[in-house]
Write a structure and sequence with these properties.
It holds the Pfam family DAGK_cat. Belongs to the eukaryotic diacylglycerol kinase family. InterPro entries: ATP-NAD_kinase_N, C1-like_sf, DGK, Diacylglycerol_kin_accessory, Diacylglycerol_kinase_cat_dom, NAD/diacylglycerol_kinase_sf, PKC_DAG/PE. Keywords: ATP-binding, Kinase, Membrane, Metal-binding, Nucleotide-binding, Repeat, Transferase, Transmembrane, Transmembrane helix, Zinc. The chain folds into three domains: 41-165, Wheat Germ Agglutinin (Isolectin 2), domain 1 (2-Layer Sandwich), CATH 3.30.60; 179-323, 3-Layer(aba) Sandwich (Rossmann fold); 334-523, Tumour Suppressor Smad4. By secondary structure, the chain is of the alpha+beta class. The chain has twelve helices and 26 strands. Strand 24 and strand 25 form a beta hairpin. It is elongated.
């Protein structure tokens, strides 16, 4: 063999090994962010447009413009988007420690300037107003963990290396020394191995899960604002795998209870509640809601509102969760057994769907089904609450002009507590667990206004209220509070025998259902947080 060929082969081998090494380091750095990052100086940069206030660069102390400014949503450090300032900020300024080994406490992490509006000094009690400074720039100091703020003069009397107690929201925070991360044989990623409850009175940590595809950019803003007040790793985006990874924190914290804030629509909330049930987390976490969907029916009933607040105040969000009262919510099992009349002897597997808000058959489900088909289309480019409501209105109007669910009563048989019910002419049947349907329409309340025996709705009595809808136009009248639903009855055991293909929806998730035997009953309960007004 030629010596030159051998030398070339050695050089090629060395080059290949170097390339593989670089690729390995790059992939490992990406994967390590899945659960726990050990980098102590890595910042999470976001646009300062999120915090909606004037900020100065912590590196050069020049006023930042909204288009050219960045802030770390973990520690609050601000910088220009230019490489010069950003690289220096990454190099010289620490961020929150994500994970501490062999430690039992955390020291304050002081950040200079850019304090929230209206804060008061923890030493003298006076408002920290940067306008009192004669020179523009950075004024005052703030701890990124406990959020205590000080005037420049007051800060000079503070021991900057003292232990931090995590401040007002210490009972909601996972301290970086409270959990253990480890790598497995199957993956180089750091995974959550265990959680040791800290010595904090009434510690009931909060896990934040946000669906950033709901409510335009509101979900992403909720994540960015709450990371600054909590441990960054307990504030997570809902990914394609669902909430399983986030809920591992609640499972590992057992037997200590957790609270969960879900920022999303009714579908996202149902997804989280189903995962809690599937993972059998004990004690059950209590779920609070930041409404980002189109209907937000469960959020309305629990007092969290029909839409997110116009101004996102992280302090008020956390305080409202702390004040909230934990209540039970019935979880209904919707069991579907398909029927084929050609082979009546053959039995088919039963499909089970969990229902928390409502279940319906007919025209309202058909409108929702058409909307979901449109939203899943490649041509669906505008994601906003107003545009979604416009689509619902369009499909509802279409059903007025061209009804597709006429004579629904002939396509099914209804049993309430094993007793057959004679149905009038209808286009929809609605089964309610909560008294909010179709983006806030209160059917029980409307039904009680006609002088009949009063129906009392409860989210935890194991009983569903059943109402009929005459047409799509009837839905519009109900939403305007100028009509009443057709009262069918109340029951704990419900059964539907479907004879023809009809549209259905459960908590806003629609599908077309062929002939089937459907049973609906409460089997268990979830824990949710009900907002308490101040």
């Amino acid at each position: 063999m030629d010596i030159a060929t051998i030398e070339l082969s050695v050089e090629a081998l060395i080059g290949s090994l170097l390339a593989l090494g670089v690729l390995f380091v790059f992939c490992r750095s990406l994967l390590s962010e899945d659960f726990v990052s050990t980098f102590k100086t890595r910042h999470s940069w976001k646009s300062i447009k999120v915090i909606e206030q004037a900020c100065f660069c912590n590196v050069c102390e020049i006023l930042l413009t909204p288009s050219a400014g960045l802030f770390c949503d973990c520690c609050g450090l601000c910088t220009h988007a230019t490489p010069l300032c950003q690289r220096r900020a990454d190099r010289e300024y620490r961020c929150k420690d994500k994970w501490l080994r062999n430690e039992s406490s955390v020291r304050h992490l002081w950040v200079h300037g850019n304090l929230p509006m209206g804060v008061h000094c923890a030493d003298c009690g006076e408002e920290v107003d940067h306008h009192v400074s004669t020179d523009p720039g950075l004024y005052g100091w703030r701890c990124a963990w406990c959020q205590r703020c000080y005037h420049n003069d007051c800060y000079s009397r503070v021991d900057s290396k003292s232990t931090c107690d995590f401040g007002e929201f210490k009972d909601m925070i996972f301290p970086p020394y409270s959990f253990v991360a480890a790598r497995t044989r199957d993956s180089m990623r750091l995974h959550l191995a265990s959680i040791t409850p800290p010595d904090i009175e009434n510690w009931e940590p909060l896990i934040v899960i946000a669906n950033t595809k709901s409510g335009s950019s509101t979900g992403a803003n909720v994540l960015s604002l709450l990371r600054g007040y909590l441990h960054p790793l307990q504030v997570m985006e809902l990914g394609s795998r669902g909430p399983q990874d986030a809920l591992q924190w609640a499972a590992k914290a057992s037997p200590r209870p957790c609270r969960i804030l879900v920022a999303g629509g009714d579908g996202t909330i149902g997804w989280v509640l189903n995962t809690i049930y599937a993972l059998n987390i004990k004690p059950q976490p209590s779920v609070a809601i930041m409404p980002l969907g189109t209907g937000n029916d469960l959020s309305r009933v629990l007092g969290w509102g029909a839409e997110p607040p116009s101004v996102l105040d992280p302090v008020e969000i956390l305080r409202s969760i702390r004040r909230a009262r934990s209540v039970n919510l019935d979880r209904y099992d919707l069991q579907i057994e398909k029927l084929h009349y050609r082979l009546p002897i053959q039995r088919h597997p039963t499909k089970t769907i969990h229902v928390y808000n409502y279940f319906s058959v007919g025209v309202d489900a058909f409108i929702t089904y058409n909307f979901h088909k449109t939203r899943e289309s490649r041509f669906y480019l505008l994601s906003s609450r107003i545009f979604n409501k416009l689509l619902y209105f369009t499909f509802g109007t279409q059903q007025v002009m061209q009804p597709g669910c006429e004579h629904l009563e002939q396509k099914l048989t209804l049993y309430l507590d094993n007793k057959p019910v004679q149905l009038p002419e209808l286009q929809a049947l609605v089964f309610l667990n909560i008294d909010s349907w179709g983006a806030g329409c209160k059917l029980c309340e409307l039904s009680n206004s006609n002088g009949e025996v009063r129906i009392v709705n409860s989210i935890s009595d194991g009983m569903m209220e059943v109402f009929g809808i005459v047409s799509s136009f009837h839905i519009a009248q109900l939403q305007c509070n100028i009509s009443k639903p057709v009262r069918i009855g109340q029951a704990k055991q419900l059964r539907l025998q479907i004879k023809e293909t009809v549209p259905m929806q459960a908590d806003g998730e629609p599908w077309m259902q062929g002939p089937a035997d459907i049973r609906l009953a409460s089997r268990s309960q979830a824990r949710v947080l009900k907002s308490v007004a101040t």
